[in-house]
Amino acid sequence: MPMIQGDGVELYAEEAGTGHPIVWLHEFAADCRTWEGQVRRFSRSHRCIAYNARGYPPSDVPEDDAAYTFEREREDLRAVLDSLNIERAHIVGLSMGAYTGLMFALRYRERVTSLLFASGGSGAFGDTRQAFLAEVRAAAEAMMNEGMEVAAERLAVGATRVQLQNKDPRGWEEFKQYLSEHSAVGSGLTMRNFQAGRPSLYDFEAELRELDVPVLLAVGDEDDPVIETNVFLKRVLPRAGLWIAPRTGHGINLEEPAAFNQMAADFFSAVEAGQWTRRDPRADPVHSSLGGARPEA
Fold this sequence. Notes:
By secondary structure, this protein is α/β, with parallel strands linked by helices. It is about 45% helix and about 15% strand. The strands form 2 sheets. The protein has a 7-stranded mixed sheet, sandwiched between helices. Strands 1-2 form a two-stranded antiparallel sheet. Helix 2 crosses helix 3 and helix 4 (about 130-145) packs antiparallel against helix 5 (about 150-155). The protein is globular. About 45% of the residues are buried.
């Protein structure tokens, strides 16, 4: 595919299949190659587009901090849709990509058929936010000083990555190899600005309560940094479902590809059939199981 222009930055994209579009947004430690198991499955029935975020070759690698804000990443997604003449699409994002997808839905909800928000929410939870910010800023500096091969060795055995190593050593080696090939400048600036500079999702509670878009939250039960945030999102997003994969870490699509693909297929099917509706008000957590009234203390 030709490179797509996003505010003067060229973005590398791949496309396969026909049908209703699905756009796949990768996580910080990945790139569009890690969606291959999903693109092969869904390009049989849908038009699939996966692209590398700015800072991830062969996309351009700007060298200024201002190029890596969450707003800029959101607008890159709009540029991809515009360039490919796509009015509306299913948006699937993992972690960093999930945040971008949610920000895009808040700004351009008319262009979102659905949002699959996978492994998203790192650093949002209030009790751990300051520690997260300090950690990612230090990691960004180390990444740019030491290079990606050293960073990949460290990141690939993190607390939410060892699950993939244990389940699929071959897939884990491939993941680590892809990570080591990334640009230290692009990854470091992404971490320093996007990861550490984006607002907490809790800051958007009022807007999230008004977001009338089908959402599926997907999280591994060993991805501890994001679990509480996904429970929060389930409670505030009016059309959200929550899917939890057991004994699974952060790279949920790589760890459990069959389950992830089936879950995504069921979600897309329900959305396209008009069956992914708002939560029944009788199931609101303010009601109890006793006919909607709370028992006396």
